[in-house]
UniProtKB/TrEMBL annotation:
Its EC number is 2.7.8.-. The chain crosses the membrane at residues 12-32, 44-62. This is Cardiolipin synthase. One of its GO terms (molecular function) is cardiolipin synthase activity. One of its GO terms (cellular component) is plasma membrane. It comes from the Bacteria. PROSITE patterns: PLD. The keyword Transmembrane helix applies. Residues 221-248, 394-421 form the PLD phosphodiesterase domain. It is found in: Cell membrane; Secreted. GO terms for biological process: cardiolipin biosynthetic process.
Length: 481
């Protein structure tokens, strides 16, 4: 009797489990593709159909690319808040709007559609690829500050590298300069307490961005502020790939690239910083010196700052990458530490190479993640067949993120060419419209190629079968990485 009852319960349990599994799968089919790229939707749906219940739990935790309601309400106010900030200098800043050449105007329009910031003329831009020299130059800029220093970095550590910046901030605050530091709560998780302790009592305002919260103010751990921004006195700005940490691959620091901008475009990096400050606090600090009258002098580089992320939901930064490729007429070079592209970007790479443009992709021979290594390798075959040249950088970890197109267009920033940067992270890039800046970036890229191994299409086709299988399996979950 008892055995019959046990068998009946077991049978009903199996029926219930099967019903729940299929209900979850059907619900996933309805909800997952909504407002999500095809790549990410495929990855999630595969997970739902293989492991429905674990997938449902994971999707509840990290499946929807949106911030808490309180932050979303602040996003609605962001534009008007930023307009009020620049009201006193709007006429002067409007006079700095760049007259972009007709051939590059479509790129500027797309960049404006993404970040809602126009290109400004009258800038001087330097690229800095030496890890230690960038830190020294940033500290020098902080030491020269007279009004304020605003720093925002994904990672800010209290190691030997971070200590240099901490001491510069302490010196600046000591002489009456207003200093604010914001870092990502997850990116800087290991060092946050120590950084705050080192700056406590110094007069430097320190804030964690996107802190992890639970229940009603639930914050997703994978949606991060990945930007790297420094603004000094509203006149000098830094942005690019480098964090404030001694990031190493072996004995060598990562290979990075930062852009130092002096001129009106620094005002837009200031807006990015203050916008994130408002989204975190609901407040805007007072500062008459945030937007000084632009000093154009003899500088004449046209520069456009392009923020992106879940707080800019209308368009994605991958549209800008694709547009740059379709815009290329002679050459295009892309440098990224992580390469897990969207389908439209893959098509743009293939189409650009097949119409005769010299397309070069430079990535590290090994990243800091074996799963990413396999996932990005799965894309190489089709690109090689289309004529894309792929270069595997074989020295330190290549963490730089930049693009050069023909002889005039450049892009330098924090965005990787992967789905995390395209859909989940807050990023910022600088687009340059200048031949000298483009030529300098080409020199940097040529230095990368000199120590890289170029992939051979035939050798890639003949790679070992286990490697192919691992790459294809990793590609299935690539959009979720």
């Amino acid at each position: 009797m008892l055995s019959d009852l046990g068998g009946l319960l077991s049978e009903w349990g199996a029926v219930l489990l099967t019903t729940v599994n299929w209900a979850i799968r059907i619900a996933a089919l309805i909800n997952v593709p909504y407002r999500r790229s095809a790549d990410a939707a495929r990855g999630w749906l595969l997970l739902f159909f293989v492991l429905p219940i674990p997938a449902a739990v994971l999707y509840f935790l990290i499946g929807r690319a949106r911030h808490p309601k309180e932050r979303r309400e602040r996003v609605k106010q962001l534009r008007s808040v930023l307009e009020k900030l620049t009201a006193d200098t709007s006429d002067e800043l409007r006079a700095c709007r760049a007259d972009i050449a007709e051939r590059d105007l479509p790129i500027s329009r797309i960049a404006d559609a993404i970040g809602e910031l126009p290109a400004y003329d009258g800038n001087e831009v330097e690229v800095e690829g030496d890890y230690d020299r960038m830190i020294a130059r940033l500290c020098d800029d902080i030491d020269r500050a007279r009004d304020h220093v605003h720093l925002m970095f994904y990672i800010f550590a209290a190691d030997d590298t971070g200590e240099q910046v901490i001491e510069a901030l302490r010196r600046a605050a000591g002489r009456g300069v207003t200093c604010r530091l914001m870092y990502d709560a997850v990116g800087s998780l290991r060092s946050a307490d120590e950084v705050e302790a080192r700056l406590r009592g110094s007069g430097v305002e320190v804030r964690a961005m996107l802190p992890l919260r639970f229940w009603k103010r639930w914050t997703r751990a994978d949606m991060r502020n990945h930007r790297k921004v420094a603004v000094i006195d509203g006149r000098i700005g830094w942005t690019g790939s480098q964090n404030i940490i001694r990031a190493k691959s072996g004995a060598q620091p990562n290979k990075e690239l930062m852009a130092r901008i002096e001129g009106p475009a620094a005002a837009h990096l200031q807006l990015v910083f203050l916008g994130d400050y408002f989204l975190e606090t609901g407040d805007i600090p007072n500062g008459a010196g945030f937007f000084p009258l632009p000093a154009r002098q003899d500088a004449d580089m046209a520069v456009q700052i392009v923020p992106s992320g879940p707080d800019y939901p209308h368009t994605s930064i991958d549209m800008l990458f694709s547009a740059l490729l379709y815009h290329a007429r002679r050459r295009a070079t892309l440098v990224t530490p992580y390469f897990i592209p969207s389908d439209p970007l893959v098509m743009a790479l293939r189409a650009t190479a097949q119409r005769g443009v010299d397309v070069n992709l430079i990535v590290s021979a090994e990243t800091d993640s074996r799963l990413v290594d396999f996932a990005q390798g799965s894309y190489f075959g089709g690109l090689l067949e289309a004529g894309v040249r792929i270069h595997l950088y074989e020295r330190e970890f290549l963490h730089a993120k930049h693009v050069s197109i023909d002889d005039t267009l450049t892009l330098i920033g924090s965005s990787n060419i992967d789905m995390r940067s395209f859909e989940l992270n807050s990023e910022v890039v600088m687009v340059g419209y200048d031949e000298r800046l483009n030529a300098r970036l080409q020199e940097v890229e040529e230095g990368y190629r000199a120590v890289s191994r170029q992939c051979d299409a035939e050798a890639w086709r003949n790679r070992p079968l286990p490697e192919k299988l691992l790459q294809n399996m990793a590609r299935l979950v690539g959009p979720l990485l």
